[in-house]
Amino acid sequence: QGPDMPLSRLRKAIEESCPHLASSVHIRLKLMAEGELKDMEQFFDDLSDSFTGTEPEVHKTSVVGLFLRHMILAYNKLSFSQVYKLYTALQQYFQNDEKKPGVDESDMELTSTEELRGKMEKEELDVPLREEEISCSGPLSQKQAEYFLSQQASLLKNDETKALTPACLQKELNNLLKFNPDFAEAHYLSYLNSLRVQDVFSSTHSLLHYFDRLILTGAESKSNGDEGYGRSLRYAALNLAALHCRFGHYQQAELALQEAIRIAQESNDHVCLQHCLSWLYILEQKIFDSCVLLEHSVNKSLHFGLPYLASLGIQSLVQQRAFAGKAANKLMDALKDSDLLHWKHSLSELIDISIAQKTAIWRLYGRSTMALQQAQTLLSMNSLEAVNVGVQQNNTESFAVVLCHLAELHAEQGYFAAASEILKHLKERFPPNSQHAQLWMLFDQKIQFERAMNDGRYHIADSLVAGITALNSIEGIYRKAIVLKAQNQMSEAHRLLQKLLIHCQKIKNTEMVIRVLLSIAELYWRSSCHIIALPVLLQALALSREYSLQYLASETVLNLAFSQVRLALNILHMAIEPVLAHGAVLDKGCAMFLVAKCQVASAASYTPQKKIEALESAILNLNEAKSYFAKVDCKEQLRDVLYFQARLFHTLGKTQERNKCAMLFRQLHQELPAHGVPLINAFK
């Protein structure tokens, strides 16, 4: 199926499956290549004799028999000049191998059956003589070219790391097109390859060439009758709209989509119209939220028997309603209905997308345990189908999303080594030049940022902001404000947060709006304006409850409790349980620290005996908070806990324990000065 592999690799492949045959093959090839033309003639005569006799060596109807007969017929049809050309090509093939035995042995190591059956190995691409080998082998046959294109297209979809690199693949495609410029499928693969490197010009050029060649060659007309020409035109316009949408050219995308809709309506093509409707929703949601289009698209897709499109519509509808604050149980019911479609029609790719979607929804709602369960479900699943050349569907976007969430969940619990291992695995599965690499890049930067902030290394955190901004501008601005706040640049941090708040409200990014409001409230505390912080926190609490963001609601309640410390113990029970169950280690520590503060504040009105008991209970809670902070190496919070403990031990008259805490506090305070900001003046 593939083109001719070098002789040394052919021998190695034969040795692995049938060792005693390898030397015979080499001897026969050497005999023909170093002999005369009659030796090759003799070889084909010997092949014909294999079918004769009462007990032939090969049966005519067997797989090998059919192949040999096909080869003999092809040889018999050759003219004398073609026979001579075949013989000289055989000699050249053998001589090329004899000239460079060292290179072949070192560079032709077989690592997997996929690489053996594929067009070429990545190691081979680095060998300078590769171009010579291609030029010697000449143009590929139609079947060889089709096999190569289908293999590479399958790899690009399911396991990009095993496909050729963009530059090497483009070189191979250019070589194919040199011999056959009207090969439409090669132009389409060139389009997919250009998308990998975000090349707008080349991808548009290749896509247009693909549909031009499809129309010119009449391939569509042969299979679809008179409708073939029009079908190519409308799907060309639809693909062009999708391409412009991918690169953010929404105006051009809308024009191309209108053209596709017009042609599809003229041809009464309902399937094409449903695809157009789906893309119309994607374009419209950039301007305003419209569930009507999407619901209509799902109903029509089901009516016309398009389960794949219907399922994608349901997924989009669930995502939109999750951002709109719908209850989690209703969303999960909708996803359950789409899962039935997936299993019924064996849509394995959509099963993966559905599980990844559930993971993200549980993360949005702050249920880390449920998110972890869904992530593990997807990672432990085997694909329903082994796609071409034995590649499993495990390097898709769904797996990238789930692994990123898994890394972040481990980092939140203080398991930084495990998070690093997951990110290392992500880097291997999705190299920096692959299309899903931006996902792990962002999560990697965010985890590094959190570690640097916890450790008080604000200069390192500040250096990471540029990388985060390049991948996600909103996250980048938010992190910059956090760094400025930590560096006591209050006015600058407040200006950035206000600007970000207006932008997030405009684009309806509710989760970020709440996080920004919490950060603004913290700025007010640091400026000793607790009263001004209250309405900001109440606004954040109202939003988090309206949009069912339970974890953010719990965090907001803790912040409210800090603002009203003396009343806090009465409302703390509302938030402490979800935080301890699903929260990050840092948030658990902050919650326990707040409980201790509230206990101390409430103890002021107690009798002497009850006051001592309350303070001792607060010390125990501070120990628990200290263990959480130590787990994530959060030195700033550790310093505050030690300061608070020293004060409590002093009140209880425990001098030895007080001195120990004071000594540890002094060590941390020298390492991490407070920059003139009063200690213990914020919830986090």
From TrEMBL:
- Using the UniProt record, give the first listed, main subcellular location: cytoplasm
Q: Any idea where the Anaphase-promoting complex subunit 5 N-terminal domain is?
A: 1-100
Q: What processes in GO biological process is this protein linked to?
A: anaphase-promoting complex-dependent catabolic process; cell division; positive regulation of mitotic metaphase/anaphase transition; protein K11-linked ubiquitination
**Which residue ranges run through the membrane?**
none
Boundaries of every Anaphase-promoting complex subunit domain copy: 187-286
The answer on whether this UniProt entry bears the keyword S-adenosyl-L-methionine reads no
Origin: domain of life: Eukaryota
Subcellular location, record wording: Cytoplasm, Cytoskeleton, Spindle; Nucleus
Any idea which UniProt keywords this protein has? Cell cycle, Cell division, Cytoplasm, Cytoskeleton, Mitosis, Nucleus, Phosphoprotein, Repeat, TPR repeat, Ubl conjugation pathway
Q: In which pathway does it act?
A: Protein modification; protein ubiquitination
GO CC, any one term: anaphase-promoting complex
Family matches, as InterPro entries: Apc5, Apc5_dom, Apc5_N, TPR-like_helical_dom_sf
Family under the similarity heading? Belongs to the APC5 family.
Summarizing the function annotation, the protein's role is:
Component of the anaphase promoting complex/cyclosome (APC/C), a cell cycle-regulated E3 ubiquitin ligase that controls progression through mitosis and the G1 phase of the cell cycle. The APC/C complex acts by mediating ubiquitination and subsequent degradation of target proteins: it mainly mediates the formation of 'Lys-11'-linked polyubiquitin chains and, to a lower extent, the formation of 'Lys-48'- and 'Lys-63'-linked polyubiquitin chains. The APC/C complex catalyzes assembly of branched 'Lys-11'-/'Lys-48'-linked branched ubiquitin chains on target proteins.
Its protein name is Anaphase-promoting complex subunit 5
Q: Source organism lineage?
A: Eukaryota, Metazoa, Chordata, Craniata, Vertebrata
